[in-house]
Design a protein that fits this description.
The protein is mainly α and about 280 residues long. It has twelve helices and no strands.
Length: about 280
């Protein structure tokens, strides 16, 4: 073998060794992975997709949730004349619209999503888990605003309550919706079967009905303690205070702040439940 051939072989061998030492990612065809999606754009994308998905059933959802709450107020009108009990009935029935959609239906949705393998689809997307939970919760809660406003207006007419402070629903609906949606997502994600998720969602809505609509003064002490644990209670209390002739806005703000804190905690637990369900 000539000296030139030996030199060429040595050069080729050295180049191959250099490529081996540098690792498999060094080369003209190597490509970097795409960066993970940011939280807010991911949240907006999931929210829009869930909103368009639920838009088909929007009218039936609004009708059923609103008709149910208005029917309860009409029944209670026969046993409640006015005063603090009337304020509790109207406020509780209005927030019940939020509970029907954000708690009951969201528990069913996540239960079915887990059973059908839909969580595997979201797990493959480069989006934060919190954006999936918040996006779905926000989409379902968005449908409750018109029904809540209609229910509150009809309740004010039935019980002769002032309608000047209905604007506070702009804060009550998203805060109570976030708290209840987080709870509904937790029930749906942790339930081993979709049928159990449906049952838990309906039980949660029944608890919101009994503990939110019935006047607190007529409840036993133990039931009152359970009422304090329900996330929507503080939204009901905040809304009920606005029917006074001179509302205590500091107390209203405190109730809304507690409702917001409960919402943050429930959505954080729902995010943990989503991660747990997605990797099982």
């Amino acid at each position: 073998m000539s000296a030139g051939s030996i030199e060429a072989v040595g050069t080729t061998t050295g180049s191959a060794a250099a490529r081996t030492d540098a690792g498999p990612d060094v080369g003209p065809d190597a490509a970097d992975l795409a960066p993970a999606a940011r939280f807010l754009p991911s949240l907006a994308a999931v929210y829009r997709s869930q909103l368009s998905r639920a838009r088909v059933a929007r009218i039936p959802l609004l009708f059923v949730a609103t008709f149910q709450s208005v029917g309860i107020m009409i029944l209670m009108r026969g046993v409640v004349d006015g005063g603090g009990e009337a304020r509790a009935v109207v406020a509780g029935s209005s927030v019940l619209v939020v509970a029907f959609v954000a708690l009951n239906l969201l528990a069913q949705y996540f239960g079915q999503l887990r059973a059908s393998g839909g969580l595997d689809h979201y797990a493959t997307l480069p989006v934060p888990p919190a954006s999936v939970v918040l996006g779905a919760a926000g989409a379902y809660a968005s449908f409750t605003a018109p029904g809540t406003l209609v229910t509150a207006g009809i309740g004010c007419v039935l019980f002769g309550l002032p309608m000047g402070h209905l604007w506070v629903l702009a804060a009550v609906v998203p805060l109570a919706g976030a708290a209840l949606a987080g709870l509904g997502a937790v029930l749906g994600l942790l339930a081993p079967k979709p049928e159990l998720a449906t049952l838990l969602g309906q039980l949660g809505m029944s608890a919101a009905l009994l503990l939110g609509v019935l006047p607190a003064e007529r409840m036993p002490l133990v039931i009152s303690w359970a009422r304090d644990l329900l996330p929507s209670t503080y939204g009901v209390e905040a809304f009920a205070r606005t029917f006074d002739a001179h509302p205590d806005w500091a107390a209203v703000g405190l109730d809304l702040a507690v409702c917001a804190g409960v919402g943050v905690v429930s959505l954080a637990v729902a995010t943990w439940a989503y991660r747990r369900a997605a990797v099982r």
